[in-house]
Amino acid sequence: MSDTTPLESASECHVEGGHKATLSTSFHATVHCLSGCAIGECAGLVIGVSLGLPPLQIIILATGLAYLSGFALGAYPVMKRESIGFLAAIKIIWIGEVVSIGVMEIAMNATDYYMGGMTVDSIFSAVFLIAMGAALVAGFVAAWPVNYWLLNRNLKNCH
User: 4, 29, 49, 108: least CB-packed within 10 angstroms?
Assistant: First the structure.
């Protein structure tokens, strides 16, 4: 186990010698975050639309699954790098993941809702697929500057 504090440990991969995180580093952190978030978000949308749930229930399901998958994918590299368990890894990454996933989810769910992806009859509808694609882009665009800010304040782990 490491002798560093959670924030020191979280900052090791992007701040060395007082240097700030770069746009490239924050881009890669955002891609990693989006991959975890997208798994849960897309699963929630597919399940919710397939079951004919109303948009609010789809948003709740998709957001819950996005947090679950995002935290799981965020914790794994920290567990491996620090040789720690899941709960210890969650203690290191939680603040950055909560904020990053939250921003992504707001952007993704708003985009999907306003494009009509949550109200279609089938997941095979062009509207559903286009809205999901646009939502992924919106989530990334919204979260990239937030992740840059989080990384530079040692509040996010760049995995």
Answer: 4
